[in-house]
Amino acid sequence: MSVIQTSDLTKIYDNRYIALNALNLNVEKGSIFGLVGPNGAGKSTTFRLLLGLQKPTAGSISLFNEPMTPERADIRRRLGYLPTNPNFPKHMTPITYLEFVGGVLGLDARRAKIQLVRLLDSVDLSAIASQPIKGFSTGMNTRLGIAAALMGDPELIILDEPTSGLDPAGRKQTIELIRELAGRNRTVIIATHILADVERACSDVGILSHGRMIYSGPMAEMRRLARQGNIHLEIEGNIGSFEQQIHTLDTPGTVTYEKIGSEFKITLLGTETLSEYMHRILGLIDKTGVDLHFIRSGEDEIEEAFLRRLEDDRTRGALRAASWLNNQGLENNDIDVQIKVDSNNASLSDNT
Ligand code: ADP
To answer: Per mean pLDDT, which range of 2-16, 67-81, 162-176 is the poorest?
Structure first.
């Protein structure tokens, strides 16, 4: 069953900034969907629209197979939300804050108490549960935010940068908590730019770039695509003969390589698995009689695959713009195009 479904969801701010461009998102019950993309890609905008905090410019949203609009408080009660860098009343403590959240959600006091004790334990805040929030670090605030998002035992949990500010142990624990939620048939959608977290936590992934979904599918498929990436090797002997036959590793046009001295970086973009490509390369090494010094597949495979997707999208974007300009009979320099570029736009870096 589909928990989130959007159809051509579009958001344009101030009639000029296209934050989301015809987004078609489908998230199935029990899955952990990772929405990834550089800053400014449209992740938070997607969340604000899903929550009914903003109205779309065009397109529609359906949650639990019902139309979601800002008026649907009944649907909002079935959601838990962690905003980026959550802020809490500084004089409160985790206990008083979660009691307050329980009150807002209309939970009975006894049930709220049981729930908050369990949650404070799972986000590892029990030891400081009675201390004022005032002195809390970013990581502690994030953990309290996760506990608050889960107070009403929501069916759909929307987490914006849930591992922000956490140390490696905190990140690991948060990811385990997220996985456990999905195991209990809850559905989770997380926005993040930390690729290692997506890889560890998510069953499905969507890559957003400039408000458009440029890839969406199972994590396993993304991993498979990534693994087709690069194979790096160093050989000695009849290097020329090996080089001449690299193109035979797969169908024409799917094999490219870079040569640095006796090292080769071979990129295979066909449909075979990495182990099949490894097998073929070892066969070619054998056939040409060269000696192998080392062979390995790319280490940051997933990161490379994401970046490759973003790079492809950027190239296609430039081509689209050029063809549009040609169709208008205009030259590039005839119009003053204002493009809003975020300073972090170019990278998907791990900022922890
Ligand atoms: P992300 O969460 O991926 O960093 P956002 O959804 O915050 O991306 O932003 C997408 C784009 O929309 C960015 O270019 C951002 O500057 C712009 N944007 C977001 N909110 C507003 C707003 N309230 N007014 C104008 N532009 C906005």
So the answer is: 162-176
Give the tokens for residue 306: 């994401």
Superfamily of domain 229-297: Protein-tyrosine phosphatase receptor IA-2 ectodomain (3.30.70.2470)
Mean of pLDDT values over 143-168: 93
The whole-angstrom separation of Cα 209 and Cα 215 is: 9
* pTM beyond 0.90: no
Kindly give the number of the ligand 1 atom that is closest to the alpha carbon of 342. Answer: 14
The pair of structure tokens assigned to 31 is 């899955």
CA of 280 to the centre of ligand 1 (A): 46
Q: How far apart are CA 251 and CA 122, in angstroms?
A: 51
Tell me the residue type at 208.
L
Predicted confidence at residue 151, as pLDDT, reads: 95
Name the residue with higher pLDDT: 331 or 238: 238
CA dihedral sign of residues 217, 219, 221, 224: positive
Which single residue is written with the structure tokens 């790319």?
Answer: 298
Q: How far is the CA of 42 from the centre of ligand 1 (A)?
A: 6
Cα of 208 vs centre of ligand 1, distance in Å, is 13
pLDDT of amino acid 332:
43
> In which band, very low, low, confident or very high, does the pLDDT at 215 lie, cut at 50, 70 and 90?
confident
Cβ neighbors of 199 (< 8 A, separation 6 or more) are 219, 223, 302
Superfamily (CATH H level) for 2-220: P-loop containing nucleotide triphosphate hydrolases (3.40.50.300)
Percent of the chain residues past pLDDT 90, beyond the cut: 57
The domains of the chain are located at 2-220, 229-297
Say how many Å lie between the CA of residue 83 and the centre of ligand 1: 14
- What is the token pair recorded at 15? 């009639």
The pLDDT of residue 5 is 98
- What is the model's pLDDT at position 228? 58
For the CA of 45, the nearest atom of ligand 1: 6
CB atoms within 10 A of CB 294: 9
**Plot region of 49 (φ>0 → left; ψ -120 to 50 → alpha; else → beta):** alpha
Bridge partners of 182?
A: none
Pick the residue whose CA is nearest to atom 16 on ligand 1.
40
- Ligand 1, closest atom to CA 44? 2
